[in-house]
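Work Package 3 (structural annotation) set out to generate three-dimensional models for the target panel prioritized at the project kickoff. During this period the team completed the workflow that converts sequence records into discrete structure tokens, so that structures can be stored uniformly alongside our sequence database. As a representative example, we reproduce one entry of 296 residues exactly as it appears in the project archive.
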Amino acid sequence: MSRTIRIIGVPIDLGQSKRGVDMGPAALRYAGLAEKLETLGHRVVDSGNLAVPVRETVVAEAPRHYLPSIAKVCREAYEAARQAMAAGETPIFLGGDHSLGIGSIGGVTHAAPAGLLWIDAHADCNTPATTISGNIHGMTLAVLLGEGYPELVEIGRPGAKLRPEDVVMIAIRDLDPGERERLRGSGVTVYTMREVDERGIGAVVREALQRLEHHHRIHVSLDVDCLDPQDGPGVGTPSPGGLTPREAQLAMEIIADCGCCGSLDVVEINPIQDQNNRTALLAAELVASLFGKRIL
């Protein structure tokens, strides 16, 4: 099915301490993402990048982990997502760190609810009370569920943007202690890498989609550190023991088969840590598979 896909770059690196993910949107564009999607018959409109402060220009915000600037960027991402959905477009947000999901996921659920398929090594479900690092990119899902800094929870519309039963996580393998306890009683469905290893990615993804079948539309939030660092080294927060490229490809193909993906984040690509842009090239192939590329 041909779509109008709107690419929105969000070169934010304020949500974490390791520099370089602000270059992720450029790396994905350089990897030929738009051309791959156009080859599949989609119309691609690139909106360029949202304005994001360079952290050296907002050093006074460092003690607050750049909360004011992150909130501003997320408000703009929320509005960009809302407008794209209202126009009948499929927005793809290119990060940047995962804090952008506070805006993108909030915005795509503004007019109507959606399920969230969160594919990531990390749950990003910390609150200011449980975080070890204080980094806001580790709080994104908690904020979307209505917990955390009010400046973030209230972006776009008051309160939670998702219910726990709207969220399914895949490839999780690196959790903070407080985050682990919160998830156990949260009602969020979590498939760790153990489930992937034991059952296979195909069974896990199909079951994940079944758990979200009460929604007509899902948002895929793809943190590229879901991949094993041997295959995707260019990420902000690598974690060993992740998905192989073929497992990730199959996951995208199965999601594509359901025809229900209405929006996407691709986050945490860090070209400084990469080798010849191989991580962005792999991510662009995954996105192409999500939007219809087939072997035969």
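The CA atoms of residues 218 and 236 lie 25 Å apart.
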